[in-house]
Amino acid sequence: MRDRLSRLTRRLIPGAFLLLAACAGEHPQTMIEPVTEFGRIQTALWATVTWWTVGIMVVVFGALIFILFRFRERPDGPEPKPIYGSTKLEIAWTVIPALIILFIAVPTIQAIFATQVEAPEDAVVVEAIGHQWWWEFRYPDHGITTANEFYVPVDRPVALRLRSADVIHSFWIPRLGGKKDVNPVPRTPEGVDPLHQNQIVLSIDSAGEYLGQCAEFCGTSHAIMRMMAHAVEPAEFEAWVRDMQTSVEPSGEAAARGREIFLRSTCIACHAIEGTSAQGQLGPNLTHFGERFSIGAGLMDNTEENLAEWILHAPELKKGIFMPGAEVAAGGVAPTGLTREEAEAVAAYLIDLRRPAAGRLMDTGPGAAGAEPATGADGATGAPADTAARPGDTTAAPADSIPAAPAAPGPDPTDTTAQQR
Ligand code: HEC
Ligand SMILES: [Cu+2]
Asked: Which residue has its alpha carbon closest to ligand 1 atom 5?
């Protein structure tokens, strides 16, 4: 018996180490290495409760195994004494679980209060708005809007205001902390904060790129609804904000032609690009699109080739989306009718939309280890030399309302409103 047991442990221990080693690799969405106090409070609570329950398990199973052996039936053993109606026992098995729950309740309630704080005055406000199936990020204090990826400064309080333009989603970037539902809220007049809005207040203490995704089933393409937070030094954040408020001029002929095609296509019914006449609100804002890590909220890497495929075949590549392809209608909008050559020009333009100084993301920074490397960094290496700041072009969209139907004439405006379920 001893022998067999030791042989078993000898086999199990290396297995356990292998398992642990597997857990120590690169896990961009781990919840056990939070970079916010908000996340650490939750992880600590989780660890506390887990260890307590492990302790309880050891006691219960230990007692069970002991009793099974100690009081097993023996040929000459006495008749067991019935214990039905034992008041002592009944009190014990009522009081002990009640005490356990009470013990768990104390740190839980403490954690609830510690994580549900009001945002301080100087917090950076970011509105995270869930859409089927992408994320919109608005900065009401800076008048900028972006999608699927957002920037925040490290070591400063950030107030994430969560709401949805359609169904219930859930905001979850595990390294920032626990998830929270993103609910549709009643429409409010401009300048008024919507009521019943969920909020997460946190402060990120380590620069890096943190990957997350929708954590509440929200329809066909729910699984492809990723997002990324870039936590950067405050000076870099200010620079990003300034750049986002500035238009980017095409760096070459192909991109310039792409812009011209983009601006005369139905794209502008749904997409906005800072400093251009494109001010659509139904789809992701494409300002600085060239810097994004992915196309379609995590569907594929952001390369020029993938982008041309997306423009031609978006509805076939990501099921159910409200964006038409070159030949397929979607979201109540007719096919765009772009040829491959035109789509490639538009792709060249969109990939070109990036800050002069910005490298392709994902490959730098201390937190980058946690993120998947984006391919195609060779895409558009040339930094546009002639980035022009246009005075007066500070912002596009009103920052406070959930977008209604496109202002620009879409081919079938009556149908597009149906998206705003
Ligand atoms: C009917 C509205 C609509 C029209 C018209 C439209 N789009 Fe879109 N577009 C969307 C929506 C909605 C998404 C988000 C899809 C998703 O990821 O679920 C999107 C996503 C994108 C993305 C990816 C954005 C990101 O951050 O992942 C690009 C690029 C894009 N569209 C380019 C275009 C171009 C170019 C055109 C014109 C040829 C166009 N779109 C026409 C609605 C539209
Ligand atoms: Cu979802």
From this structure: 267
CA of 55 to the centre of ligand 2 (A): 36
Q: pLDDT, tens digit, for every residue of 187-216?
A: 777 777 777 789 999 999 999 999 999 999
DSSP class of residue 104 equals H
Which pTM does this prediction carry? 0.78
User: Distance between CA 297 and CA 136 in Å, rounded?
Assistant: 10
User: CB within 8 A of 184, min separation 6: which ones?
Assistant: 163, 164, 165, 166, 167, 168
Q: What number does CATH give the domain 30-71+83-116?
A: 1.10.287
Distance CA 74, CA 93 (A): 28
CATH topology for 253-351? Immunoglobulin-like (2.60.40)
Q: Is 258 in the pocket of ligand 1 (CB under 6 A)?
A: no
Contact 309, 386 (CB under 8 A): no
Six-digit token string for 184:
């549709």
Residue type, 331: G
Inter-residue contact 151 to 232 (CB < 8 Å): yes
Q: Which two tokens stand for residue 200?
A: 């997460």
Superfamily of domain 120-232: Cupredoxins -  blue copper proteins (2.60.40.420)
